[in-house]
């Protein structure tokens, strides 16, 4: 399918599809006239990429490790999947640590505001 239809089917803009290609995340086929040709497997990959990007994973990590996640055959597919999962867990743990710091800061601000509203913080 051409880029317009692929964008419609995947829910990703044509511009995003071109960006994914520029970043090496997808490699659509080409028609004889040079137009991109998106097969169902590429659309499935786009959906995985979109989901991973929406969860905050960096493009670098997705580009390096995605082949193992999408079930592409290859000698290192299982190792790539395990590595990808470790990287995702590490990213999640770093995110959780940042959330904890921000929660502590929010609690401190809440305490300050409570005190200020009682007249103690002028």
Automatic annotation (TrEMBL):
Which Gene3D superfamilies would you find in this protein's record?
1.10.1660.10
Keyword DNA-binding belongs to the record: yes
Q: Which PROSITE patterns does the record associate with it?
A: HTH_MERR_1, HTH_MERR_2
Keywords assigned by UniProt?
DNA-binding
Q: Which SUPFAM superfamilies match?
A: Putative DNA-binding domain (SSF46955)
> Which segments constitute the HTH merR-type domain?
1-68
- For the keyword DNA-binding, the answer is yes
One of the Pfam families matching this protein, by short name: MerR_1
Please list the coiled coil stretches. Answer: none
Q: What is this protein called?
A: MerR family transcriptional regulator
| Native source organism of the sequence | Streptomyces synnematoformans
């Amino acid at each position: 399918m051409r880029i317009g239809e692929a964008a419609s089917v995947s829910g990703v803009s044509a511009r995003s599809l071109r960006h994914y290609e520029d970043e090496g995340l997808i490699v659509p086929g080409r028609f004889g006239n040079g137009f991109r040709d998106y097969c169902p497997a590429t659309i499935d990959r786009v959906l995985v990429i979109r989901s991973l990007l929406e969860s905050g994973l960096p493009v670098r990590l997705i580009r390096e490790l995605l082949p193992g996640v999408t079930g592409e055959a290859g000698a290192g597919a299982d190792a790539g999947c395990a590595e990808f999962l470790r990287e995702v867990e590490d990213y999640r743990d770093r995110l959780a640590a940042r959330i904890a710091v921000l929660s502590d800061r929010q609690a401190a601000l809440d305490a300050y505001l409570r005190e200020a509203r009682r007249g103690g913080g002028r």
